[in-house]
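Schema walk-through. Below, the input block comes first and the output block second. Nothing else is stored per chain. Lengths vary across the set, and this one has 156 residues.
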Amino acid sequence: MRKNSTSASPLHNALALDNQLCFALYSASLAMTKLYKPLLAELGLTYPQYLVMLALWGDDGLSVSSLGERLSLDSGTLTPLLKRLEANELLSRVRDAADERRVHIVLTARGRALKVQAQKIPGCVVTALQCSVPEIMSITQQVQGLRNRLQTTLAA
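--- output ---
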C-alpha cells in the first residue's frame, strides 16, 4: 500500500523513485529509444548506429577517436558499430596517410544518400512528443547543460 507522500519524512520523499532525476532521465531515454525503433527500422539502423550516422552527416571524415569522444562511446562499443555500418556499405574506415595509427570514418555514397531518408525522422519525433519545436529545443538545452555539469564534476 502506498503512503501519502505529504505525511512521509523528508528522507523518505528524497528516496522515492518518482522523485529521482536519474530515474526520470533513464525512463525517458528508454521511451525515446522505443519511439525511434520503428522509424530507424525503415532505414535499417539501430539507435546507436543512427547516432553514429548523425555525427558523420554533420562532420564526415571524423577520426575514430573523435567520433568516440563526440558520442561518449569507448572503442569497445564503437568498433562493432562501425564494422556493422561498414558491412552495410554506409561508411568506410580509412587509415590516415600521415599517421597509420589514425583511422578516419568516411561516409560512402550509400551512407550520404541515407541522410535523405532520415530527414523525416525529426518531424515524426516532434509529432509524437506533442511539443512545440521551441519547447523541445529548451528541454534539449537543459539536458545538455546538465550533462556538461556532470562531465565537469566527474572530471574533477
